[in-house]
Amino acid sequence: MYRKLKTLVEKGLVKQVPAVGLGAFRIGFSLVILQEIVFLFYFRHLIFDPVPFFDRASPILHFFLLVWAAIAVCLVLGYHTRRAAVANYLFWVVFVVFTPMWQDFDGGFDQLMTGSSFLLIFLPTERALSLDNLRSKLRYSTPASRYEPNDKVSVLAYYLPLAISLGLLYLDSGIHKLSAEFWRNGMGAWLPPTMPYYMSAIDMTPLLNLKLVEMFIGYTIIVFQLVFLFLFWFRPFRVPLLFIGAIFHTGIILSLNIYPFGFAMLVHYFLMVPFKWWRKLTQALRLEQPRLTVFYDRQCPLCNRTVIIIQHFDIFRAIEFRDLQTYAKEYRQLESIPESELLKDLYALDGEGRLYSGLDTYIQIMVCMGYTAPFGWFMKLPGVYHWGNRIYRRIADRRERVVCDETCAVTSDPGSWGEHPFGEWYRRYAATPAQQTQRIAKFLILILMLQLNSTVHYGLLYRCGDDCDMGEFGRVLDEVSNSIINFSHAFLGITPHALYMHDHFAGYNHILAITYRDETGREHWLPFVNEEGRIVAPNWGRVQSMWANVAVTSHMHRERLSKFLKKVTAFWGTKLGLDLSHAEFVIKLKEVSVPMDWEEDLRRKNIAQPWRDIGKIVWERRNFRVELPHIDVEAL
Description:
This protein is of the alpha+beta class. It has helices at residues 2-14, 20-42, 44-48, 60-77, 81-98, 110-122, 131-140, 156-177, 181-184, 205-208, 211-231, 235-255, 259-266, 275-285, 301-313, 324-327, 332-335, 339-342, 359-368, 373-379, 384-398, 423-429, 433-464, 471-491, 502-505, 542-551, 558-575, 602-608, and strands at residues 16-18, 152-154, 292-296, 319-323, 347-350, 355-357, 510-517, 523-525, 582-591, 611-620, 623-627. The strands form 3 sheets. It has a 5-stranded antiparallel sheet with strand order 8-7-9-10-11, with helices on one face. Strands 4-3-5-6 form a 4-stranded mixed sheet. A two-stranded antiparallel sheet has the order 1-2. A hairpin with a 2-residue loop joins strand 10 and strand 11 (623-627). Its main location: membrane.
């Protein structure tokens, strides 16, 4: 098996493909990271403070979130990509393992983000749609020769994230689903959107009321998850799997309030888009004719750098560049300008033959490029234009021109590892294809063993319960296996994916909400759970998981419920400006139905169920207590 795996890895390393899909994946994945950091910063007091705004967490956490956000921006732009990827991975591990995100606020996708962030360190995602490409062009280009960075990658750069982040996750999740009654009944996609705590604001009732359609969706998801890992390698299956997976995760985004998980999974499908689709998209974006022709001095280093920068960002190819030394005599608009003056500025001609120079050329470039037009219009404003023109003249008049000879040639090859943060280490230990093949094969064996341990432990042995009792030796193995899972969970994101299973929904026949009364006695719903029982924005993702999966469950515990009632009322009470030195909140309960088989119009029925008051939360002199006089929480 190991030899066969090495052979496959070797073939994958040899086959080179365009990097554009990998670059698109990096941008999409990094935007998911960035939005999650913004979410964490908004809810930083709820998540990290023991008691929001009262017993505060260390303020250094807030600083780290800002640093992490800057790193995510670098990943989006592809700026120092590998260094940013290393830092991003470390932040995921530290925040998930050493803060309440580990258990209380598990957003359901932290493990996916950790695992994919680890892979991102080693993937050459900077080879497309990145500022690192621009940096390489500027560093190694000269007036005599234009350097073009390598835009090809090994096909393994596409296959490995798909196999590890998607394929193994799907397979593990599919095996778990086989043990869930409502999934076996075909209702796996139907039940969660009928439960108020999980449904989105979009009313999916017309679709939910089609039993056969819901059964088809449910069974398709199970089959899709079980076969994805084994089929996506083959070209005939790739596009069908792409469409099914994209529809699957788009459905999660639209029907449930766990949109971060849906987007995190969806962006991985950029890696499955056929390369010819990217080529056709590129051709469709490019204009048939340039909107502006720009003339520059090819002997001027600054002018050449300017051309490289503009061409890098000109995605529509709206600007055509021509050097003055070759083409100036072909245009009558330039003939009357003395050569000494001609070489001082950038000149441009638009489609109507109008001539621009200096700052006006840059303004027209920004306007013609399309998406940068607002910057061009801003530069035209009175005051801004004159200030910008003064700066431009100062730079243009002081620049130096050189006559390029053989000394302009690139004197050093950037090499494959030139921009890698561990370049010297790579040159020494992983410079040959044989070494790379061996290390990748060993890594894949390790991942497979860790995933097998997790799947067998929780997907099979845990599910069969007492029937799998292996005695004292078995209990020792169980502890060892569990310890390994904790390691793989924390550092590689390999963990059981038993999401939305029967053992979570069974008996989940009640939900809670919180209201408060203003000074006039009028009752208001806390902006958390609304009158319908839905958890409202922005309390989605990991905050929804905290409330619906930890605080309120089918078997609640008074101490755990009290902890999160305290957190929620302290956070939203302070946000609303309530005086928590003397405040009361009302705890409401609604009964809902979570059947294991289809029931018509269940979403509307659950929403329409009445609320009843079951207790109150009292804040007095910043002391907190919960009063549930007639309710046994553990019995709910």
